[in-house]
Automatic annotation (TrEMBL):
<feature type="binding site">
    <location>
        <position position="181"/>
    </location>
    <ligand>
        <name>FMN</name>
    </ligand>
</feature>
<keyword id="KW-0285">Flavoprotein</keyword>
<dbReference type="InterPro" id="IPR050074">
    <property type="entry name" value="DHO_dehydrogenase"/>
</dbReference>
<feature type="binding site">
    <location>
        <begin position="322"/>
        <end position="323"/>
    </location>
    <ligand>
        <name>FMN</name>
    </ligand>
</feature>
<keyword id="KW-0288">FMN</keyword>
<feature type="binding site">
    <location>
        <position position="250"/>
    </location>
    <ligand>
        <name>FMN</name>
    </ligand>
</feature>
<feature type="binding site">
    <location>
        <position position="148"/>
    </location>
    <ligand>
        <name>FMN</name>
    </ligand>
</feature>
<feature type="binding site">
    <location>
        <position position="186"/>
    </location>
    <ligand>
        <name>substrate</name>
    </ligand>
</feature>
<feature type="binding site">
    <location>
        <begin position="251"/>
        <end position="252"/>
    </location>
    <ligand>
        <name>substrate</name>
    </ligand>
</feature>
<dbReference type="GO" id="GO:0005737">
    <property type="term" value="C:cytoplasm"/>
</dbReference>
<feature type="binding site">
    <location>
        <begin position="116"/>
        <end position="120"/>
    </location>
    <ligand>
        <name>substrate</name>
    </ligand>
</feature>
<feature type="binding site">
    <location>
        <position position="71"/>
    </location>
    <ligand>
        <name>substrate</name>
    </ligand>
</feature>
<comment type="pathway">
    <text>Pyrimidine metabolism; UMP biosynthesis via de novo pathway; orotate from (S)-dihydroorotate (quinone route): step 1/1.</text>
</comment>
<dbReference type="Pfam" id="PF01180">
    <property type="entry name" value="DHO_dh"/>
</dbReference>
<keyword id="KW-0665">Pyrimidine biosynthesis</keyword>
<feature type="domain" description="Dihydroorotate dehydrogenase catalytic">
    <location>
        <begin position="54"/>
        <end position="340"/>
    </location>
</feature>
<dbReference type="GO" id="GO:0006207">
    <property type="term" value="P:'de novo' pyrimidine nucleobase biosynthetic process"/>
</dbReference>
């Protein structure tokens, strides 16, 4: 089945629904599918023909699902079947939380962009851990699984490190890599953690339980594109000094430059095509400053072959997509894979 063609005919219908409703319906369908099927691909599948090594892990291809689409890890087998080379779930917080009031998700079709202020709606570390444990028992995963953790809204900034630690203790062992998200614009004060001392404190606090694992997990820190270059480099260095394997660049932006759409009343993080240039430029800057060693995952505006090539040219080892998938459809991964051939 040609997924691109299918999405081309389905998209106008899906886009008639409120964005969050469309998201919920799609995810519910993928979750149901994932209970029945394991999504395993045969060895000769093109999705397994472009392996990469990074952080001591083997990725069957370099294209991953970005955090936020499957926050509660409901549809991992389906993402695997679509050909993703790795899957990142979350953001998961220590405590379950409902997120911000609706509406909190907006489509900007003219800009191929999304604005969201979801505010880390998620089932909480304990429930997601139970779900991941069941998934691990099914032994179906052929690709690395990342778990992205964030701070619970009710936890004050000075207790942030313990909040991250709680989530790590529940989820770390169930993940292949763990991402410390300090860059969402939708949890008040979260981005203030993007400071050298805070980054060090949080990562070092997580490293304690991590280093006690039989196989310590690679840790990454996810940064915002709105940081000044010098601050991003300082945070990145602090993360590496505290033992991180790499960085994810970038989260959504609070900037609104160059948009065709009107965005009054749409506070939140902007993703998709308008984010591409800044997020790729910051990736290149950080790669240049840090050298070839750390793993850099490029995310922001990937929607076609040129945009993903730009990420690799800027120094990304791996790339992730979210908004591109909404506009271009689930065939996007296969399309990107063809370009690697
Ligand atoms: C609706 C929505 C929710 C998101 N939620 C999260 C999240 O929970 N944690 C996170 O680290 N990033 C989250 N992101 C950011 C994406 O992972 C990604 O960094 C960003 O959207 C840029 O990539 P894109 O242009 O391909 O969408 C979210 C993005 C969107 C659009």
């Amino acid at each position: 089945m040609d997924l691109n063609l299918l999405w081309h005919s389905l998209r106008p219908l899906v886009f008639r629904f409120d964005p969050e409703r469309a998201h919920r319906m799609t995810l519910a369908a993928l979750a149901r599918w994932s209970e029945r099927f394991d999504g395993r691909l045969v060895a000769g599948d093109p999705a397994h023909a472009h392996p990469r090594e990074a952080m001591g892990l083997r990725f069957p291809n370099p294209f991953g699902l970005a955090a936020g689409l499957d926050k509660d890890a409901e549809a991992i087998p389906a993402w695997q079947a679509l050909g993703f080379g790795f899957i990142e779930v979350g953001t998961v917080t220590a405590q379950a939380q409902p997120g911000n009031p609706r509406p909190r998700l907006f489509r900007l079709p003219e800009d191929e962009a999304i604005i969201n202020r979801m505010g880390f709606n998620n089932a909480g570390a304990d429930r997601v851990a139970r779900r991941l444990r069941r998934l691990r028992e099914r032994d179906l995963l052929q690709v690395p699984l990342g778990v992205n953790i964030g701070k619970s809204k009710v936890t004050p900034a000075e207790r942030a490190a313990e909040d991250y630690r709680y989530s790590f203790e529940r989820l770390g062992e169930l993940a292949d890599y763990v991402v410390v998200n300090i860059s969402s614009p939708n949890t008040p004060g979260l981005r203030d953690l993007q400071r050298v001392d805070e980054v060090k404190r949080i990562v070092e606090t997580i490293q304690e339980p991590n280093q006690r694992l039989a196989r310590p997990r690679p840790l990454l820190v996810k940064l915002a594109p709105d940081l000044a270059d010098g601050d991003a480099i300082d945070c990145a260095r602090a993360a590496l000094e505290a033992g991180c394997a790499g960085l994810i660049l970038t989260n959504t932006t609070i900037a609104r430059e160059g948009l065709r759409s009107r965005t009054e009343g749409m506070a939140g993080g902007l993703s998709g095509r308008p984010l591409q240039a800044r997020s790729t430029a910051l990736l290149a800057t950080v790669r240049e400053a840090l050298g070839p060693e750390p793993t850099l995952i490029g995310v922001g505006g990937v929607r076609d072959v040129p945009s993903v090539r730009a990420k690799f040219a800027a120094g990304a080892d791996l790339a992730q997509v979210y908004t591109g998938l909404i506009y271009r459809g689930p065939g996007l991964v296969r399309e990107l894979l063809e370009a690697l051939d």
